Structure formats: C-alpha cells, structure tokens
Amino acid sequence: MNLTPKQLRILQLIRDWRVRRGYSPTMQELADEIGVSKVTVFEHVEALIKKGALVREPNKARSLSIAEGIAVPDESRPLRFPLVGKIAAGNPIERVADMDEIDVGEFIGARMGRESTFALKVEGDSMRDEGILDGDFVLIERTQVASNGDKVVALLPDGSTTLKTFYKEDDHIRLQPANPNFEPIRVKYCQVQGIVKGVVRKYGR
User: Fold this and answer.
1) Residue spans per domain, the chain
2) Helical axes 38-51 vs 5-21, angle rounded to 10°
3) Which entry of 86, 164, 188, 202 is annotated as an active-site residue?
4) List 126, 160, 168, 202, catalytic entry
5) pLDDT for position 62
6) What's the pLDDT tens digit per position in 1-12?
7) Average confidence (pLDDT) over 168-197
8) Nearest to 15 by CA among 71, 84, 90
C-alpha cells in the first residue's frame, strides 16, 4: 500500500493509542501529535479510509480503527511494544499505568508483531513452574476472552491485576498459580485483559 509519511504516522498513532489506552485518538489529538491542522488530519484520514487502511464507524467518536489484515510497520523499531505496567505473579498489586516501551529487538532477533500486543514486567514468582520468573517480560495479546488453561492478565474486582492460569468453574473463576507456595485466587468475576503469548528474559548485560 502506497502511504505518505504522515499517513503512516497516523496509522501508527491510532494503533498505539488503541493498544495503550483501549480507544482511538480524536482528529484534534492526531493533529496535536503530528503538528498539523485538524483539517489536514481529516484529509489524510479520508485518504486512508479510501485506501482501505482505516475503518470509521459513522456518528461515533473515537471510532477509527486499523482495517482487518492491515499490518502497520514501525520502520525504525519493528520489535518495539508498549510497556504498559507491571503485573503481579505473586499477590495482586495495583496496576501501574506506565507509558513506556520494551524493545524486543534488544532481546531477540526474530521479527514479530501484532498491533494488539503489549508487554508487562513480572513481579513475583507465583508462575515460576510455568517458566515465568520475577523480572521477566511477558508479551500479552489483548483480548477479553480466555479458555481454561490460558495464562491470563486478570483484573480483579478490587481493581488489582494478576497473572495466573485461568479456569472457569461451576460458580466461580479460579486463577491458579504455578508455585505451591501460593494459593489459588477464587472470584465470582474477573475481567480478562489479555493472554500470555511469550516470555522475554535477558541474561547478563
């Protein structure tokens, strides 16, 4: 697809906002990020819609999304994912809304990437026997749907988040640690925020 530099930047911004914040930027926010007028952004967005790169729901704010099947390249750092906080692999902790990034290129050499992927730094060792250790980075695919046995990031009713293995049982959800020193967490309801797709660990310097 033939895109201008500003059109590519708009796609990258929309992707990053949706991954980090869960919603798209407004036209004004895009204009502020790029340093152009709102009218100019509108023209670029219309061009991207015509090219099939963007989808917009009519009469709905923050409805811009990347069209299905469109991969948005990050030409300078293709292995960089947003690092959105830390996740407890012990007792649940309050989510940290850090707006930083982890560059997987510093750790591995393979190209990977989905626009819905983000990273969390693990604190604690309750998932030790699954090979997820304190200080690791987990790559998370954003989703609200999980199957039994998935390792998930779960938002608990008290507002804390934790990394555990998900099991839906008769009248509750069991969030199972992978370390006998920790008890399972049982709740009536939790919100799945993503599923673990990879673990990144750096050795030495």
Assistant:
1) 5-66, 80-200
2) 90
3) 164
4) 126
5) 85
6) 677 888 888 988
7) 93
8) 71
Whole-angstrom distance, CA of residue 30 vs CA of residue 157 = 34
Contact 149, 114 (CB under 8 A): no
Q: Which residues contact 102 (CB under 8 A, 6 or more apart)?
A: 80, 81, 82, 83, 119, 121, 137, 200
Q: Give the pLDDT band (50/70/90) at residue 84.
A: low
Q: Does domain 5-66 have CATH number 1.10.10.10?
A: yes
> For residue 184, what are the CA distances in angstroms to 34, 108, 115, 162, 190?
47, 33, 32, 11, 14
Per-residue three-class SS string for 20-80: HHCCCCCHHHHHHHHCCCHHHHHHHHHHHHHHCCEECCCCCCCCCEECCCCCCCCCCCCCE
Q: What is the CATH number of domain 80-200?
A: 2.10.109.10
Give residue 185's pLDDT band: very low, low, confident or very high (50, 70, 90): very high
Rounded CA Rg of the chain? 19
Confirm whether 126 is a catalytic residue.
yes
Site of tokens 């998935």: 150
In angstroms, the CA 92 to CA 102 distance is 22
pTM metric for this prediction? 0.53
* CA 165 – CA 146 distance, rounded (Å): 10
pLDDT of 177 strictly over 90 = yes
Q: Is 63 a catalytic residue?
A: no
